[in-house]
Design goal:
CATH class of the largest domain: Alpha Beta
Strand order of the largest sheet: 2-10-9-8-5-3-4
Radius of gyration: 21 Å
Structural class: alpha/beta
CATH superfamily of the largest domain: Type I PLP-dependent aspartate aminotransferase-like (Major domain)
Strand content: 15-25%
Number of helices: 9
Bound molecules: pyridoxal-5'-phosphate
């Protein structure tokens, strides 16, 4: 059976060779005769997996030997909404409100201190990234969301503020583009959008921003403790970390973030050019803020929806429905999605126009 073209927003497509290797390892990890699912997380084999995953993550972000540590947690990106505040918020934090995930992060942070929403795009259902705003100088940190998965906007540049660490939720575009990752004090990302299966969350933190809050932090929430225990304070999500390692190895073999960025740009241009050209569709977001990962678009005439839906389903496309807060369609084009799949979608859109 031919694999569907998977535009799903998350969990989502990973490289086929990663699926193949992972499925082999469920039976026999590298000739050991044991499954990745049955070995001790303290075994030499798994400690090596964990170390490799942490080291590859730093390497791919260009953050090796720059004072950063890579850690794996459970609980998803949503757990980081509160953990980051737990570890970093003493008096006041600033947040950019650019979508549902940002709003959730703001809600959680309010449990720990004052939160100032520095800028928001809520007035237009989050279809753009706010630009002209002042960053207050008295913040413990400033939090942003690099890619707004639901709405399809992506930050192309990031605010700077001297002595204010920048904390970023990169769940849906980490490892997708070549940017200066050292501008961030802390980056977090749920694995399930560009890195691996759900269950692990990557945190990359600059060590010198930690240890500044006066509250007692429970062990399972404590970044410093997890650094000391090399991400093995308790049983880590072994399978998710393992598959994340395989995906990071695939990324390294494929030329790293700069090579993958070129491919992601080509895929994004292809779909956005068609959205702009095709009179039946319109893009949801401001053009300058369009996401390379999640392209959101709607039909100008909603009555045509069932016909378009039939066409893309017949073309073996999966996961194109938009999130309920936007409606329409969302083509998620994560690292592992091939440009051929985007061609198939664009051809369906052209055929739909011709036959309408
Ligand atoms: C998916 C997503 C989340 C939520 O991730 P969970 O791992 O399900 O908690 C948070 N932020 C962004 C940007 C996302 O895309």
């Amino acid at each position: 059976m031919e694999r569907p073209h998977n535009f799903s927003a998350g969990p989502c497509i990973l490289p086929l060779e990663v699926f193949e290797k992972a499925s082999q390892s469920v039976i026999d990890l590298d000739g050991s005769g044991l499954s990745i699912l049955e070995i001790s997380h303290r075994s030499a084999a798994f400690v090596e997996v964990m170390e490799k995953a942490r080291s590859l993550a730093l390497e791919q972000l260009g953050l090796k030997n720059k004072g950063y540590k890579a850690l794996f947690f459970q609980g998803g990106a949503s757990m980081q909404f509160l953990m980051t505040a737990y570890n970093l918020l003493e008096n006041k934090a600033g947040y950019l409100d650019t979508g549902t995930w940002s709003a959730n992060a703001i809600k959680e942070a309010k449990n720990f201190g004052n939160v100032e929403v520095v800028a928001s795009s809520k007035d237009k259902n989050y279809n753009y990234i706010p630009k002209q705003y002042e960053v207050p100088t008295d913040l413990d940190y400033l939090h942003c969301t690099s890619n707004n998965t639901i709405f399809g906007t992506q930050m192309k540049s990031f605010p700077t503020s001297e002595n204010t660490p920048l904390v970023c939720d990169m769940s849906s575009d980490i490892f997708s583009r070549d940017i200066d990752y050292s501008q961030f004090g802390l980056i977090y990302a749920g694995a399930q959008k560009n890195m691996g299966p759900a269950g692990a969350t990557l945190v990359v933190v600059k060590e010198d921003i930690l240890g500044k809050v006066s509250r007692t932090i429970p062990s399972m929430m404590d970044f410093e403790l997890f650094i000391k225990k090399e991400s093995m304070f308790n049983t880590p999500p072994v399978f998710s970390v393992y598959v994340s390692m395989l995906t990071l190895e695939w990324l390294a073999r494929s030329g790293g973030v700069s090579a993958i960025e070129k491919k992601n740009k080509a895929k994004a241009s292809l779909i956005y050019d068609e959205i702009d050209r095709n009179p039946l569709f319109e893009g949801f977001t401001a053009k300058e803020d369009r996401s390379m990962m999640n392209a959101t678009f709607t039909l100008k005439d909603e009555k045509l929806a069932s016909r378009f839906d039939n066409l893309w389903k017949e073309a073996n496309i999966n996961g194109l429905n938009g999130h309920r807060s936007v409606g329409g369609y969302r083509a998620s084009m994560y690292n592992a999605l091939s440009i051929e799949s985007v061609h198939v979608l664009v051809d369906v859109m052209k055929h739909f126009e011709k036959t309408t």
